[in-house]
Automatic annotation (TrEMBL):
SUPFAM superfamilies: FKBP-like. This is GreA/GreB family elongation factor. InterPro entries: GreA/GreB_C_sf (IPR036953), Tscrpt_elong_fac_GreA/B_C (IPR001437), Tscrpt_elong_fac_GreA/B_fam (IPR023459). Residues 57-131 form the Transcription elongation factor GreA/GreB C-terminal domain. It comes from Sinorhizobium meliloti CCNWSX0020. GO terms for biological process: DNA-templated transcription elongation; regulation of DNA-templated transcription elongation. The keyword Protein biosynthesis applies. GO terms for molecular function: DNA binding; RNA polymerase binding; translation elongation factor activity. Keywords: Elongation factor, Protein biosynthesis.
Length: 140
């Protein structure tokens, strides 16, 4: 089923225990609304190295991360990866329940990823920078 391909043999993605728990629930709840994307997220959650939240490296893409990517044949883009209820395209907040959101989850700078959008178009991008906006939220 996988339409997401990570273009290297680097270690499996990291994910914090809280994100793992919440994303697992979200994926199963979303199966009835968007089977393909939810299935991709479920498949991705079968592979990561789950760490305590405070041990996730700050340069790993996770919920709340600010990510800068080089897009194939396009400009660099910066956005935040968020839960579906927090999406705001004008503010650059994209949902983890989108093809690109699932593709980026758990990646680090230098990793390239290829995925297919909902209309079947092949896309490619490389993670350039990840800002950890999550630690501040965890401290609250």
């Amino acid at each position: 089923m996988s339409s997401i391909m990570v273009s290297s043999n680097l270690p499996l993605p990291f994910i914090g225990a809280t994100d793992y728990r919440l994303l697992s629930r979200l994926a199963y709840l979303a199966l009835s609304r968007d089977f393909d994307i939810a299935g991709e997220l479920i498949e991705k959650l079968e592979r990561p190295c789950v760490l305590p939240d405070d041990q996730v490296p700050p340069d790993v893409v996770r919920i709340g991360s600010i990510v800068t990517c080089e897009v194939e044949d396009g400009p660099r883009r910066t956005f935040s990866l968020v839960y579906p209820d927090d999406v705001d395209a004008e503010e650059g907040r994209i949902s983890v329940l989108t093809p690109v959101g699932v593709a980026l989850l758990g990646l680090r700078p230098g990793r390239a990823v290829e995925w297919f959008s909902r209309d079947g178009q092949r896309n490619h991008l490389t993670v350039v920078r990840v800002e950890d906006d999550v630690k501040d939220e965890l401290a609250l």
